[in-house]
Task: inverse folding
């Protein structure tokens, strides 16, 4: 079993981006990070994004509207960022508090600045095998993690557990693209799937993105399979100062010995997501400032 | 084995649409059909669409630009149709002659008039489980065919052979939507898939959309499976006046005895595609003329 070190691979990408940003003439790329409310995970994610941007030399603009902001007010805020020539990318941190319609907010971001890739246009472009858009950061991060770990998808059977808009569906579309780095056979399973364990066992590459702590157990994994754990679940742990620990969607202790390669949680997919957000921000900048 | 009669089911939908259109106040829905060149299949498809529109009471406007039309000229034509308040839906018949970029043309149609559903916005909406858009007619037709044949997808394993933009990918996204009529587990196979026969044999519902005559043989089909044949292939047949006959992507003679239900070619998916185009045109009309 080989551990896929997401921290290391993400650090490589961050270093590459730092070099690329340093070579840019004129102003640096700018990413607007909008966070509504004080969800502890959101606070920590936005902090991490801000820190990584700073490391690369990307300017970040953290915007913290009042937690009671209405949907029209949030739209107006996004309108201003869409129109601001000094802003290249816009990310609205999920989850948004009720009763805001999160999807409507993602869609309100101009496609050219939608570096989180959750708007309709950027999703549709993945289905059209079109590289000009922004691929949502988690699936893009998984593709990069696989490529930089020497995993070739072509002809392989990829089984994705979970059909979310943020991970399962876009990753499935990416992996089945008609491209040398893709060309996978793809199965998408989910909570309603009959015989999920038997399907998962067919996977050459298994993507666990169902959002249930330690859902994938050893009996669901083919010996030698590549296992990518997208889950980030907080489970109570009185032994910790924080009162919780993070576990993935994979029962690591039992699965790891069977897997060919596996990502840990934390330190697997998580850091990749942040690195790919920065890559998308640089791409947005370049598209808006053609050389 | 039960034959799924696409002609009968499409005729039911056409009758329903005729009733709905008759009840509309004011002008009738209008569909612009743009055909470039004299590809014989395109000529026959557009004729069929024109005829079905007339049966329903939908006005059709067949536009036959010169075969040597350039891409900018075709864009300008679409711009005029996009801006024309008397036109509700626009279909540009595929295939377009070289060197026109077909995808760019589909994307040029305003999303609100893209009744063929091949533009980026309408594809992205399927991935977002959003019903406000237009689902491309063939996948929408297959969903309707299954529903009206009493086939429930929830929890079933759907295997799609073929990952095209027109059928395989949008159908996969539709079948995995979080909706009572969907909720399927979905596998997408294609020309690069290793072990395709074994995967196809797992299908409760098998969608053959790979564009190869009689590709699916009996050994690839689980006894009792529902088999939907999307293929329309012309194979030479000197015994026919036309010199060819139509065959599907399924070897009907050997597969039919094993299947639970199966669609014939012709008379299966084909007529459904036309019926769903009309349904989309009525939907476009209603969205543009709210009651």
Result:
């Amino acid at each position: 079993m080989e551990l896929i070190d997401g921290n290391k691979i993400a650090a490589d990408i961050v270093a590459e981006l730092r070099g690329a940003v340093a070579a840019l003439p004129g102003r640096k790329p700018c990413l607007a990070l909008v966070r509504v409310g004080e969800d502890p995970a959101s606070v920590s994610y936005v902090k991490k994004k801000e820190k990584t941007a700073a490391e690369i030399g990307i300017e970040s603009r953290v915007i913290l509207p009042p937690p009671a902001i209405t949907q029209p007010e949030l739209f107006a805020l996004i309108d201003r960022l869409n129109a601001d020539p000094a802003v290249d990318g816009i990310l609205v941190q999920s989850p948004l508090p009720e009763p805001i319609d999160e999807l409507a907010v993602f869609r309100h971001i101009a496609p050219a600045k939608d570096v989180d890739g959750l708007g309709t246009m950027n999703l549709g472009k993945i289905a059209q095998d079109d590289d000009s858009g922004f691929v949502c950061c988690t699936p893009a991060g998984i593709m990069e993690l696989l490529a930089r770990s020497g995993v070739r998808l072509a002809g392989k059977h990829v089984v994705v557990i979970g059909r979310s808009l943020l991970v399962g569906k876009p990753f499935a579309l990416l992996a089945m693209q008609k491209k040398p780095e893709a060309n996978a056979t793809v199965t998408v399973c989910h909570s309603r799937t009959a015989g999920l364990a038997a399907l998962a066992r067919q996977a050459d590459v298994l993507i666990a993105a169902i959002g249930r702590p330690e859902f994938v157990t050893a009996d669901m994994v083919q010996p030698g399979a590549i296992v990518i754990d997208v889950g980030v679940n907080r489970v109570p742990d009185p032994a910790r100062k924080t009162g919780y620990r993070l576990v993935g969607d994979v029962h690591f202790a039992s699965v790891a010995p069977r897997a060919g390669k596996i990502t840990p949680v934390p330190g697997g997919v998580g850091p990749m997501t942040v690195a790919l957000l920065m890559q998308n921000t640089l791409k947005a900048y370049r598209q808006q400032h053609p050389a």
Notes: Residues 25 and 184 of chain A are 39 Å apart (CA to CA). The interface with chain B takes residues 103, 119-125, 127-130, 154-157, 163, 165, 169-170, 172-173, 176, 178, 183, 185-190, 192-196, 199 of chain A (CB under 8 Å). Chain A has a mean pLDDT of 97.
